[in-house]
Amino acid sequence: MCNLYTVRTPIGGAALFKGVQWVWQPSDGLHSIRPTDSAPIIVVTDDGLTGIEATWGFPSPPQYGPGPVYNTRNLGSAFWRPWIGQRALVPVIAFCEHDARKRKHWFGTGETIAFAGIWGKLAGEPLPRFSILTTESAEPVAAVHPKAMPVLLETAERAAAWIKAGQFEAGRIATGLSPVQAPAPPINRQPDLFG
């Protein structure tokens, strides 16, 4: 399950995000994002596609312990029902999966693409929350982490299909989405850059 990814800012120059009105972005550079970190996401507002700041992960239901829920696999779950109609694009340049020995392996296309996400505002919290949708792993990610990987939206058409779907369609579209056909081989990064 993905619990670390990177985003390069400014995002406005990325072809997939043309026309987005940015309300917030972190300072320029490469940023490592982990659960409970704030990160830029793109949502639909009355003004169109808007880039906002949100916290990665929703509070876990009490029966599952204190950690955040930051990946979404089962959109049919009652836990996600309140937010399924609130889709997000999560800009990403590379993501990390851990193998059975807990070693990091980085994957990316070399371009800024998006994860499919959902988001929501929680009472009493200053920032909205978001979660990344996951799907069955495909190669080469499956060789490292066979259970699941993020849903990747590498084209404007796939991103639009996800973010503009109605609430009823969102689950169907998410089920029909697949990981990018051929993610780039793992990116070898220096540990000090990505922690």
Characterize the structure shown:
- The model is unreliable at 175-195 (pLDDT under 50).
- Helix content is 13%, strand content 35%.
- It has helices at residues 141-144, 156-163, 167-176, 191-194; strands at residues 5-9, 21-22, 29-33, 38-45, 48-56, 58-59, 68-69, 71-72, 87-92, 94-98, 104-107, 113-120, 129-135, 149-150, 152-153.
- It starts with a strand and ends with a helix.
- The protein has a five-stranded mixed β-barrel with strand order 4-5-13-12-9.
- The protein has 195 residues and is mostly beta strands.
- It is built from four helices and 15 strands.
List its salient traits:
single chain, mainly beta, five-stranded mixed barrel, four-stranded antiparallel beta sheet, globular, disordered C terminus
SSE layout and pairing:
Elements: E1 5-9, E2 21-22, E3 29-33, E4 38-45, E5 48-56, E6 58-59, E7 68-69, E8 71-72, E9 87-92, E10 94-98, E11 104-107, E12 113-120, E13 129-135, H1 141-144, E14 149-150, E15 152-153, H2 156-163, H3 167-176, H4 191-194
Parallel strand pairs: 2-5, 5-13, 8-13
Antiparallel strand pairs: 1-3, 1-10, 4-5, 4-9, 6-7, 9-12, 10-11, 12-13, 12-15, 13-14
